[in-house]
Design goal:
alpha/beta; six-stranded mixed beta sheet; Rossmann fold; 226 residues
């Protein structure tokens, strides 16, 4: 379970003013659930994902992800936690440009020391599912935006993460490619039940979720269970 209690987060802007993103925000997210967070640009959706993944830290409050209070552990421990337990999908893909498609998708397995034949086969099967098995030796610059996002999705799922966090994963995709990416996420969820949190502006994605959160005015102000 993910439990945020009265968390606050702020950043210093260029003129050294403080920009408050959250103020006493609280939410509980059940294990294995699929939550989609909607909100305007700048509302803090991506920041919330960064806090859960340990990329960033809260200013005040408590943030439990599983049995770990991310506010109480070191940066190194947060990095190790993220490497092992979190799969991240970004709107900007974030593929490593100097690695081939094959090297990109197998990188999480190597990083975690779990590049076994079984896990490699699992990862390559996902790539085949999204129609890119014939692009193994290509570099990201040779791929279209939609193809890069499909590769990025496979990479995020390769190590079978406990938490899958997706930041506008379909934002740059056409409807058909978005369906392919979302169906791949659903396939993994059905088999391995990661706790999935996706932030988006696309209301068409509601059909995939167990729960909808709306982030406005520094709080989750509306909750819907599907």
């Amino acid at each position: 379970m993910i439990v945020a209690e009265n968390i606050s987060k702020s950043f210093y802007e260029a003129d050294e003013r403080i920009h408050l993103v959250f103020s006493h925000l609280s939410v509980k997210i059940d294990p294995g659930s699929f939550t989609i967070i909607f909100g305007a640009s700048g509302s803090g959706k991506s920041t919330f994902l960064n806090l859960i993944s340990g990329i960033d830290t809260i200013d005040t409050g408590s943030l439990l992800v599983g049995d770990i209070d991310l506010a109480m552990v070191s940066e190194n421990d947060r990095t190790l936690f993220r490497r092992k337990n979190v799969g991240l999908i970004f709107q900007s893909y974030n593929l490593i440009p100097t690695l081939t498609v094959e090297e990109n998708i197998l990188f999480p397995l190597e990083l975690n020391g779990i590049n076994t034949p079984e896990n490699i086969e699992f990862t390559l099967a996902m790539l085949k599912t999204v129609g890119l098995i014939n692009r193994l030796k290509d570099f990201p610059e040779k791929l279209s935006g939609g193809e890069q996002q499909r590769v990025a999705t496979v990479r995020a799922l390769a190590h079978k993460p406990i938490y899958l966090l997706a930041d506008e994963p379909t934002g740059n995709l056409d409807q058909e490619t978005a369906e392919i990416v979302m169906n791949l996420i659903q396939t993994l969820r059905e088999e391995y039940q990661p706790t999935t949190i996706l932030v988006s502006h696309d209301q068409n994605l509601k059909k995939y979720a167990d729960r909808i959160l709306y982030l406005e005015n520094k709080h989750f102000i509306s909750l819907e269970h599907i």
